[in-house]
């Protein structure tokens, strides 16, 4: 999430085409690891009996994002906020990413370890898991 957010900022502030292409490639790379990490995080956080219900939102959310993304991008281009032109389609990810990082660190499975749970991410790559998934997902009551 941090990599995607920072690369989105780099895209939005790109001084030239070459830099934009490099930052966009990095953004794509960082974004490509978010989905499998989201599935893995849900699998770790939820007990097997609740896993099916926990995975249900993934399909509709990804479908909505596929439809809403181009519409939102066109709307942002039309608004031309602060004269930012095309940059706003990248800069919109920055506050969302920052909020997701803060929520993930506050409410993720590693925020309040329990004696029966695993201690949390143990490798540097594990901290890049999509915090918004863990922040918005909680197991249903028994």
From TrEMBL:
It is found in: Cell membrane. Residues 123-142 have a biased composition (Low complexity). Residues 111-142 are annotated as: Disordered. It is a multi-pass membrane protein. Residues 1-142 form the Major facilitator superfamily (MFS) profile domain. The chain crosses the membrane at residues 55-77, 89-112. InterPro entries: MFS (IPR011701), MFS_dom (IPR020846), MFS_trans_sf (IPR036259). Keywords: Membrane, Transmembrane, Transmembrane helix. This is MFS transporter.
């Amino acid at each position: 999430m941090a990599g995607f957010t920072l690369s989105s900022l780099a895209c939005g502030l790109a001084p030239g085409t070459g830099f934009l292409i490099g930052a966009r490639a990095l953004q794509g790379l960082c974004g490509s690891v978010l989905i499998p990490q989201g599935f893995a995080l849900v699998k770790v956080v939820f007990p097997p009996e609740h896993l099916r219900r926990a995975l249900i939102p993934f399909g509709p959310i990804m479908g909505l994002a596929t439809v809403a993304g181009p519409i939102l991008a066109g709307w942002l281009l039309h608004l031309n906020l602060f004269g930012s032109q095309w940059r706003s389609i990248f800069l919109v990810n920055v506050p969302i990413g920052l909020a997701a990082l803060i929520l993930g660190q506050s409410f993720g499975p590693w925020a309040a370890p329990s004696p029966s749970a695993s201690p949390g991410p143990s490798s540097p790559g594990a901290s890049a898991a999509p915090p918004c998934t863990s922040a918005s997902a909680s197991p249903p009551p028994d």
